[in-house]
Amino acid sequence: MYIQQFGSAMGSPVSPIVSNLFMEWLEQQAIHTAPLDCKPKLWKRYVDDILEVIQKRSVDKLTRHLNQVDTTNSIKFTHETEQENQIPFLDTLIVKKPDGSIKLLVYRKKTHTNQYLNFQSHHSLQHKLGVIRTLLDSNRRK
């Protein structure tokens, strides 16, 4: 037996909506109250992954600020910095070219196994075909 103590239950249809509403509120509070010397120039979020452009000297200060906004302490922000003019974000690798433009590459974590949904599993046929379509579409774009 498990009793939900805080937040919305995993697997509930309403959980993604509630989570997204909370993250929108949290990021608005965080950006609005951020000290001027560490306000991000760019802030893009997908679920709980955030891409931001900020001065290198302000990264730690902004991370500390973000972690103070949520008084429940249920969300902890961490950060990665670009290495050799590149940084991963979701399934892309963002590469900064010498002329200031950017190039996007497909990114796979070192732990990526190239294993996908087993066709013999009990998932719906739509989900299984969706995996195949996604792989075909991503290979066409290369």
Helix proportion range: 25-40%
- Separation of the first and last Cα atoms: 48 Å
Mean pLDDT: 88
Radius of gyration, CA atoms, in whole angstroms: 19 Å
Query: Reading side by side through the largest sheet, how are the strands ordered?
Result: 3-4-5
Shape: flat
Number of strands: 5
The percentage of residues in β strands lies in 15-25%
State the secondary-structure class: alpha+beta
The number of distinct helices, counting runs of at least 4 residues, comes to 3
H and E order: HEEHEEEH
The description of the largest β-sheet is: 3 strands, antiparallel
| Low-pLDDT segments | none
Q: What would you note in describing this structure?
A:
The protein has 142 residues and is of the alpha+beta class. Among the domains are: 15-81; 114-142. The protein contains three helices and five strands, in the order αββαβββα. It has helices spanning 15-33, 59-69, 125-140, and strands at 42-46, 49-53, 86-89, 92-96, 102-106. The strands form two sheets. It has a three-stranded antiparallel β-sheet with strand order 3-4-5, with no helix packed on it. It has a two-stranded antiparallel ribbon with strand order 1-2. The longest helix is centred in the N-terminal third of the chain and has 19 residues, at 15-33. It is flat and about 55 Å long. The N and C termini lie far apart (48 Å).
